[in-house]
Q: What sequence folds into this?
């Protein structure tokens, strides 16, 4: 597991971008962390790192945003309002995981039992400093991405 200290939203984006550039297309990334932790900021960077040039916003009401650019999809889920299998099934999640595109999921806490075993897990937590976050990465050897 790697732990990265971020001092600003743009540093969190940068970490997301490094991961977005490093992971293979089709990866599933599960984000964990409270309201305002920086999951959307991380996702914004992740899309950029994949070479996707789209406006990234929390899909809280839509549940899923599909970013498509340069021939690639990034499916951005927000599971804040999702609970249970039926609910999750109706979002199309099971088709998108392992489908044609990468997947990144906010509020993975709510669907933890349905995450693929080989997903990359990112947990973002706040510290005493209001602009500081700890980003824990597991399921991928981030230390060796050359960031
Ligand atoms: N080091 C940091 N990393 C990320 N965000 C930071 C950091 N420091 C301050 N912030 C601020 O925290 C907020 C993070 O917002 P963001 O929408 O990314 O959170 P979120 O985890 O997606 O929240 P939600 O659960 O509501 O979707 C932004 O206002 C951002 O400017
Ligand atoms: Mg968000």
A:
């Amino acid at each position: 597991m790697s732990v990265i200290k971020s001092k600003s939203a743009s540093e969190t984006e940068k970490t997301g971008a490094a991961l977005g550039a490093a992971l293979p297309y089709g990866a599933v990334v599960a984000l964990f962390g409270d309201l305002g932790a920086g999951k959307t900021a991380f996702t914004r960077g992740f899309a950029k790192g994949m070479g996707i040039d789209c406006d990234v916003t929390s899909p809280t009401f839509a549940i899923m945003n599909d970013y498509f650019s340069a021939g690639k999809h990034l499916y951005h889920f927000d599971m804040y309002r999702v609970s249970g299998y039926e609910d999750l099934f109706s979002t199309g999640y099971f088709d998108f995981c392992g489908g044609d595109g990468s997947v990144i999921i906010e509020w993975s806490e709510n669907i933890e039992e349905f995450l693929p075993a080989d997903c990359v897990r990112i947990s973002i937590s706040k510290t005493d400093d209001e602009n500081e976050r700890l980003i824990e990465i597991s399921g991928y050897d981030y230390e060796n991405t050359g960031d």
Q: What stands out?
A: The helical segments are 9-22, 39-50, 85-90, 93-96. The radius of gyration is 14 Å. Residues 6-9, 11-12, 33, 35-41, 58, 106, 131-133 surround adenosine-5'-triphosphate (ligand 1) (CB under 6 Å).
